[in-house]
Amino acid sequence: xxxxxxxxxxxxxxxxxxxxxxxxxxxxxxxxxxxxxxxxxxxxxxxxxxxxxxxxxxxxxxxxxxxxxxxxxxxxxxxxxxxxxxxxxxxxxxxxxxxxxxxxxxxxxxxxxxxxxxxxxxxxxxxxxxxxxxxxxxxxxxxxxxxxxxxxxxxxxxxxxxxxxxxxx
Amino acid sequence: xxxxxxxxxxxxxxxxxxxxxxxxxxxxxxxxxxxxxxxxxxxxxxxxxxxxxxxxxxxxxxxxxxxxxxxxxxxxxxxxxxxxxxxxxxxxxxxxxxxxxxxxxxxxxxxxxxxxxxxxxxxxxxxxxxxxxxxxxxxxxxxxxxxxxxxxxxxxxxxxxxxxxxxxx
DNA sequence: GCATTATACTTGCACATTGCAATTATTTGT
DNA sequence: ACAAATAATTGCAATGTGCAAGTATAATGC
Lengths: 169, 169
What we know:
Two copies of one chain form a homodimer. Chain A is mainly α.
């Protein structure tokens, strides 16, 4: 044999056309400027920003609520809250009825920071949406809702089940 | 004053409705099972998998081509290639004409591994697409193409320009 | 033609992030 | 009251990332 390198098969997955990668690419590219903004300006981490966004709309949240709302594990949530508290952007109090739960609330300066970051976030979103027609926005919105649901299921079942499913259609 | 906590403003950015976050969420959730699969089965990192996918469709690629194709910086590419070589999934040769350039090619066993991972990737994609109608798929495809372009521009201009633009509409 | 500069990539090291075990604090069940 | 369960936190090891410096090669200037 003259060649140890393998030839491409024609039905091969193409990264640049693979839906999850395309979604990731858009998300990652717009996340970068936003991330440099809040990290340079406020010294906030990605987890910190997400948690800030959650407590901005939901007062006295506990850690698991926050984790569920922004897809972070309890460790990351705990550390993120710690960072926000250190920066003076959040306060942590024991829960009213059950004191195992934390009651995390945004502070005034946390709200100010959030508003500044959210302004940039909205500007980014506006630029993206400006590329779409009204009907495309509507379609994208409803499609994304279903994709969110399906991706949660995909995540939940794990790769073994996914391969089994693929084998027995 | 009876309250040190800041009230929510009504036009606030809501994380769960913010387009970039929604895209990220779907991408992250489906990436998780895929990542456990290739890391458990082949000991491959995320960068390793992406590079493998690139060299699976583009033979004798050099490091900067790979980096551009899968959004990795040169360091990550170099290390990812190193990992693939160690696993026997890729070979690194000096470029034909200019020997500063690497010519990275996938090996037979690299191709085998890629095909197995790609099978899972395609199964995941199929499950996502099954939730959409034909016309939704078409719309999503063309919308994503434009979003990719716009997000690249957003990334390129940086946050200062984005805020300036928002201030002067 | 030889020294200088530029390019492509790699490596070493410091630093940050993450994952997981163990810990603390609190509540619930018996 | 004591054991088990639950929410959250912390310490530490492993892992990943960013950047400075290094190597190898090619192009440029004199």
